[in-house]
Amino acid sequence: MIKKLLLALIAVATVFTGFAQKIQSPQEFLGYKPGEQFTTHYRIVEYYKYIASVSKNVKLQQFGTTNEGRPLLAMFIASDENIGRMEEIRHNNMKLAGIESGAGSTSMPVVTWLSFNVHGNEPASSEASMWTLYDLVDPANKTTKAWLKNMLVVIDPCLNPDGRDRYVNFYNSVHGIAPDPSPTAREHVEPWPGGRVNHYYFDLNRDWAWQQQKETQARVGLYNQWLPQVHVDYHEQGYNAPYYFAPAAEPYHKDITQWQRQFQVTIGKNNAKYFDQNGWMYFTRYEFDLLYPSYGDTYPLYNGSIGMTYEQGGISAGLAVVTRAGDTLTLVQRVAHHHSTSLSTLEVASANTQKLLEEYKKFFDNNRNNPPGEYKTYVIKNDNNGKVNALAKMLDRNGIQYGFGLSNKTATGFNYITQKTEQFDIGANDLVVNAYQPKAVLLHVLLEPKTFIPDSATYDITAWSLPYAYGLKAYGVKESFKPASAKWGVLDPAPLTNTHAYAYVSAWQSVNDVKFLAALLKKKIKVRYAEKAFEVGGKQFTAGSLIIARAGNDYPDFDQVVTQTAASLNQEITALSTGFVDKGSDFGSDAVRVIHQPKVLLVAGEGVNSEAMGEVWHLFEAQIGYPVSLVKYQDLGRTKLSDFDVAIFPDGRYDDLMSEKLQNWVRDGGKLIAMENAVSSLVDKKGILLKRKEDKKDDKDKDKEKDKPVKLYGDRERSAISSSIPGAIFKLKLDNTHPLGFGLPDYYYSLKLNDDIYDLFGDDEGWNVGTLKKDGYVSGFVGSESKKKINNGLLLGVQSMGRGSVIYLVDDPLFRSFWENGKLLFSNAVFMVGQ
Ligand SMILES: [Zn+2]
């Protein structure tokens, strides 16, 4: 009995003394060595919670939740002295950046932020994060203790938990007792859509600046409250490549400072030191460039940090795989490499605290006093409240300051649309952004009309200027103007005076208008649209404007439903007491059509580009709130198509797209929307009149070809570039009298990702809604061969077929969901065309 009591006492004593001394490693906690198994997300969360419960040097924050309900976590790790000063350290960063008033100190701890596993099927890094965390909190670890004296570390263990679990659950469910290293084994072939992307199939490492996804909104929201000095984004690349770390490849955006470039080299050399010691292979300065602003390296760089991407070879490698070099690559090795660069980066950051903070301060001082770029003021004309509000929200999320109006001011500036310098008036509701502000570099990168590209080989799109992406009229002004009202946030709609109307009218020119329509349709309210522009009571409405008349909506609470729906969406509506218009067609005329609530089918599954499909899915569910049925392409044969009015085929490879069944459905009144490669899959199919534009080379070109020097093997990358378009902006001529162009001006900015272009329809074949002329190029890199090809052709078209129609959208109008301009165009295809 006494013996038992004694044992119990010893056990209690162990628990108490253990609190200060012994902390379990990931191996002790999970029961296996890092990399011996894949850890599901909830177990990673458990380990982080465990550390938070036993270590006094950490604070765990849940800053968000994924679409599938998994927690998003940030672990803050600091020394005994600093853990209680976290808010002070954070405020100091804000002061150094000039975001908060007061002088910041450059003698404070540096903040280093490590972001793991943004791509779900690049899973080694989350495993490495636990090991790194353990090293930082292990009381016996003197090295990391020394680093933490002047450094606060933030670890985000997994940026994309939904994607990670999709991959890990797949892998764990298909491998045998021992992993099969044969590359063709099924455990190395992920099923559609794969774990890279989040729930809506968005690539979260393309979303930092746009923040269209809930994970990004939560994370970048937190990030911008801290603005760390060093940030690493952990990835994996194809498993035949070894390890990539900074310094990055060209091109660099020219706003990236000398210091940022130089410190990438300092960190890279330290990483290399450990890789050399261990005999591990690696490369630097290749493939991963620093241009597109929505990555986990560029976004931090444009926000004053040393932003870097690290890539371990390992996608699809499972627990073990045989590489092209004949070696067996294991998860254990992959985890060890990420762990090594984590520690190496922390070591360099802590050794350079003072310099990092001084340069950080200098970056923001320069932003406020000497912003980059020739324009010191950007003016966005407000002829579209919905779109201006959408842009304002995005600027808010990025901490870019703006205001509205400048009373009776006439200015001279670069007109983004005409590309000429012109005089213009600034109105009270125009959005005005002054460049002298803490986020000047980010502002410049997002708004400059043309991105300077020192080298054409880049990993991503080369044009994204927001006025084009949003389709807004904008001016770049060389003088510095401050807005009249420094008010941030969106503009409120004008209040409604009449709440018992003959009809309510809403504009049709932004996503918010579409959201309003969707909400009304779901409430069974009959909505009409005007085929032509009209004027009533001194107000002008464009074609496509929504008319919600009392006629046909014979409900006692009609007014209430319409006005409350509008109020809940911050939607401006006009109440009219008459259907007798001053100009245009009266509401009872044939030119005012009823919008029949469409039942929408979206094609998904193997062969479909999951990200392109996800953009459509997300638009319906998360942005406009309208139901959509997802059906696999392979299951269309047994789907009752007559249940649907609209079928959307996103980018993808479709072998026999125009089956007889589908064609009959269109002829019976169905509407088929084909996007990107779905368009090319339709060419030459029965009933399809669209023809690919042939390369017509004239004799001069042929002569030139004869004189061309022999192609060198060493130049093969260059010659591939001549026919490449990584993503460039073109201005199309838009027929906005056609329902596909409703609510848009007579031009449309399209982001071209390839050189596909089609012949114009003949008069009785179809409608040439969006066409490209010779002078349509606006911005971004286009290879010389492609440049010759892309002109005088069709990019947006509509063809009637029986009682139905086929809509051709050759480019992606919903690109990464930041191409705001295309959302209305796409909504026109769904709700307006063929009514
Ligand atoms: Zn990646």
UniProtKB/TrEMBL annotation:
<keyword id="KW-0482">Metalloprotease</keyword>
<keyword id="KW-0862">Zinc</keyword>
<protein>
    <submittedName>
        <fullName>Zinc carboxypeptidase</fullName>
    </submittedName>
</protein>
<feature type="signal peptide">
    <location>
        <begin position="1"/>
        <end position="20"/>
    </location>
</feature>
<comment type="similarity">
    <text>Belongs to the peptidase M14 family.</text>
</comment>
<keyword id="KW-0121">Carboxypeptidase</keyword>
<feature type="domain" description="Peptidase M14">
    <location>
        <begin position="38"/>
        <end position="423"/>
    </location>
</feature>
<dbReference type="InterPro" id="IPR000834">
    <property type="entry name" value="Peptidase_M14"/>
</dbReference>
<dbReference type="GO" id="GO:0006508">
    <property type="term" value="P:proteolysis"/>
</dbReference>
<dbReference type="GO" id="GO:0008270">
    <property type="term" value="F:zinc ion binding"/>
</dbReference>
<keyword id="KW-0378">Hydrolase</keyword>
<dbReference type="InterPro" id="IPR029062">
    <property type="entry name" value="Class_I_gatase-like"/>
</dbReference>
<dbReference type="GO" id="GO:0004181">
    <property type="term" value="F:metallocarboxypeptidase activity"/>
</dbReference>
<keyword id="KW-0645">Protease</keyword>
<dbReference type="GO" id="GO:0005615">
    <property type="term" value="C:extracellular space"/>
</dbReference>
<dbReference type="Pfam" id="PF00246">
    <property type="entry name" value="Peptidase_M14"/>
</dbReference>
<keyword id="KW-0732">Signal</keyword>
